[in-house]
Amino acid sequence: MKKWVFINWVLALGLSTAAQDSSKKNSDSVYRPLIHFTPSTGWMNDPNGMVFYKGTYHVFYQHNPNASVWGPMHWGHATSSDLIDWKHQPIALYPDSLGTIFSGSAVVDHKNSSGLGTADNPPLVAIFTYHNQALADQKKKNFQTQGIAYSLDNGVTWKKYEKNPVIQNPGIPDFRDPKVTWLEDQQKWVMALAVQDRIYFYGSKNLLQWEYLSQFGKTNGAHGGVWECPDLFPMEFENKTYWVLIVNINPGGPNGGSATQYFIGNFDGREFKPFTAEVRWLDFGPDEYAGVSWFNTSQRRIFIGWMSNWSYANVVPTETWRSALTIPRELSLVKVKDVLLLKSLPVKELSSLIESQTKEIDNQKNPFRVQLTAQANADFSVEIFNDQKEKIILGYDKKQNQFYIDRTNSGKTKFYSEFGKIHTAPRISNDNLIQLDIWVDRTSVELFADEGLTVMTSIFFPNQSMNKIKFNGKWPKDKSPVITSLKSSQNTK
Predict the structure, then answer these.
(1) Which has the closest alpha carbon to 149: 201, 212, 107, 199?
(2) pTM for this structure?
(3) CB-hemisphere CA count at 13 Å for 338?
(4) Does residue 302 contact residue 309 with C-beta atoms inside 8 Å?
(5) pLDDT tens digits for range 236-289
């Protein structure tokens, strides 16, 4: 959750009125993604409370319904049966006397440990941060606390716990974004909480009373900004269980501003111990942040992030709505040179969007996918452009052994002085061949290199549709680049 000073409510309401202008709606439509979730109106940032229950994926998100800039936070809500077509639902959580509703998570309390439901109808429980702006304005340090809400109708409506908050603040300004998981072997809940540039762990038997367990992060990872939106979960690899801790950071990302780092190690129910102190990034691009995973997806670990950057999120050139979520990605562990790493690839459900191979593109009318295989011993690039010579270039620099996305001349860039830059990511694989899987929407590109070992996400805002593509490089025999047209999802309402 963003830590900026709270925006004046009167200003937000004024902007809301302006946002109703029909001409702005028309101009904004050319930038609304075709295969990514966006709010119908207003502001969106962190995905929250992702939970899978009774065949339905729920995504909640930080939402200001009154304006297209960050303001008094609510939990927006959308549902899907396939991670592709999302249906907007009524706002789930509104601000109250304890504060506005910052980021958090949601779980299925299968055993009704909280007593908020019944054995036959266990509750969905949301765990979130209350942000009390009045206390912040008084220079108090305890203005963020943790509260819960629950649903007994499969997430349709939510009731806040009458004894909130369930975790008081010990006097720390940045004390937020609870992510809760269940430890079956210890029969308890564990919470990862972002506290300045650390992660605090708490434990509970019932989601109502919490015990402080330990903290992590003093000498690990990147510390260029505040830590936010953590996620702790187990993953299997070669018949062993490892623990992954995701920590989002702002600023301090590899290409400036916001980014998502991760750690792999062991967790004994009290302490997390990583295998290395090295900094590792789940996405190297400038536009994936606050990424966390769904609860209750069985053997799969499905991840999604906010597709923007706090450096410029409030000023990107849309006005009636702002921001999108990345495409959902499935996480898995892999070893490279005996080092255990986390990789991510587009979820298999996205294959239903694939139409047919094509040689023509028009990112205003249709999203598309580019797949290519290249030799690792030479430079290559993919140039997507239009008649105004606006372009976005993705490629590989052999000398530097790194991938890049160049949006220097991608269209509208002046809204932020550092937007029009070249962003880079190291190549992690040591194979002789490089594989790229590129997903292009109206205003975004997501690059998955070497089967998800290196990932980059970038947004862009052309003045005219990108309708031309050029490949620069040499390709192995019978491995020419493939362009596939994609269907639009139902996320454009």
Answers:
(1) 107
(2) 0.94
(3) 0
(4) no
(5) 999 999 999 999 999 999 999 999 999 999 999 999 999 999 999 999 999 999
Whole-number average pLDDT of the chain: 94
- Spatial separation of the C-alpha atoms in residues 13 and 3, rounded to whole Å: 21
pLDDT digits (tens, 9 = 90+) for 295-324: 999 899 999 999 999 999 999 999 999 999
The structure tokens 């590989």 sit at 396
Higher pLDDT, residue 197 or 27? 197
Reported as a pLDDT band with limits 50, 70 and 90, residue 28 is confident
Closest CA to 264 of 239, 289, 282: 282
Give 63's strand partners.
44, 74
Here the tokens at position 380 are 């290559």
Q: Output the CA–CA distances (angstroms, integers) from residue 480 to 182, 255, 356, 469, 476, in the order listed.
A: 47, 31, 16, 14, 7
Cα-based torsion angle of the residue sequence 144, 145, 146, 149 in order, rounded to the nearest 10 degrees: -90
431 labelled catalytic: no
Angle at Cα 286 formed by Cα 279 and Cα 371, nearest 5°? Answer: 95
Could you say which of 21, 28, 46, 431 is catalytic?
A: 46
What pLDDT, on the 0 to 100 scale, is given for residue 235?
A: 98
CA contacts within 13 A on the Cβ side of 277: 6
Structure tokens belonging to residue 132: 């009390």
Task: Give the per-residue pLDDT at 10.
Answer: 35
Token pair 């439509």 is at which residue? 29
Answer positive or negative: Cα dihedral of 378, 390, 28, 256.
positive
**In this structure, are residues 216 and 272 in contact, taking their beta carbons and an 8 Å threshold?**
yes
Instruction: Give the pLDDT of residue 467.
Output: 97
- By residue count, the chain amounts to 493
**In the block, residue with structure tokens 């009318």:** 365
Whether the CB-CB separation of 490 and 83 falls below 8 Å is answered with no
d(CA 64, CA 153): 25
Q: Do the strands 468-472 and 391-397 form a parallel or antiparallel pair, or are they unpaired? A: unpaired
Task: Provide the pLDDT for residue 6.
Answer: 37
Q: What is the rounded average pLDDT of the residues 123-142?
A: 98
